[in-house]
Amino acid sequence: EVQLVESGGGLVQPGRSLRLSCTASGFTFDDYAVYWVRQAPGKGLEWVSGISWNSDSIGYADSVKGRFTISRDNAKNSLYLQMNSLRAEDTALYYCAKDTYDYVWGSFSYGMDVWGQGTTVSV
Amino acid sequence: QSVLTQPPSVSAAPGQKVTISCSGNNSNIGINYVSWYQQLPGAAPKLLIFENNKRPSGIPDRFSGSKSGTSATLGITGLQTGDEADYYCGTWDSSLSAGVFGTGTKVTVL
């Protein structure tokens, strides 16, 4: 079964840091771009960050640029999000998701076909 | 704020059809693929449409997608009570070098 499982969320004070993890199974993780998407309570989806299959390409939303860092460890089938200088407005459910097709990024992305259940971050 | 604009809500009776619009610009929808997601209450988003108009396996053909210029549309025919959910469009924005989602639309079955 293709699966993504997030972890690492919790309650943190403003200005502190938190590291989220997402563990993949059931597919060849190192062939796919993966993403972090968040949803504040009662609000819509917000694209946070993405990373290509080989880590050569990375993108961030303006709202987190300079504070969040995305990374991946293909040997561990894992995606990470290091969140520094956290603010109240970062409070959200954080999902990880994978791209539909392998070896695509950015303008060639087709959509996100597998999502985790999310991990909650409260600042 | 979201770069892509959707109507806040649409509604129709069971068996009827609804369409949801997603408006962008020449940096996002105009030049990149659009995808659509369904989010049932309390659940993670689910991919309904990718590459503008393709359905993943398991998604019924009651759901359809189209794109024209800088706008995209999701159609749902034969509306069912189980279709009550929030729906989001998404794409890449080449100016921002980031992904973007729509503002979201709540579908209500009357």
Please give a quick description of this structure:
Chain A is mostly beta strands and 123 residues long.
Any chance you could write out the topology, listing elements then pairs?
The complex is a heterodimer of chains A (123) and B (110).
Chain A: E1 3-7, E2 10-11, E3 18-25, E4 34-39, E5 45-51, E6 58-60, E7 68-73, E8 78-83, E9 92-99, E10 112-115, E11 119-122
Chain B: E1 9-12, E2 18-23, E3 35-39, E4 46-49, E5 63-68, E6 71-76, E7 85-93, E8 98-101, E9 105-109
Parallel strand pairs in B: 1-9
Antiparallel strand pairs in B: 2-6, 3-4, 3-7, 5-6, 7-8, 7-9
Structure, explained:
The complex is a heterodimer of chains A (123) and B (110). Chain A is 0% helix and 48% strand. Chain A has strands at residues 3-7, 10-11, 18-25, 34-39, 45-51, 58-60, 68-73, 78-83, 92-99, 112-115, 119-122. With 110 residues, chain B is mostly beta strands. Chain B is built from no helices and 9 strands. Chain B is globular and about 40 Å long. Classes of the chains: A mainly beta (123), B mainly beta (110). The interface between A and B is medium-sized, with 26 and 29 residues.
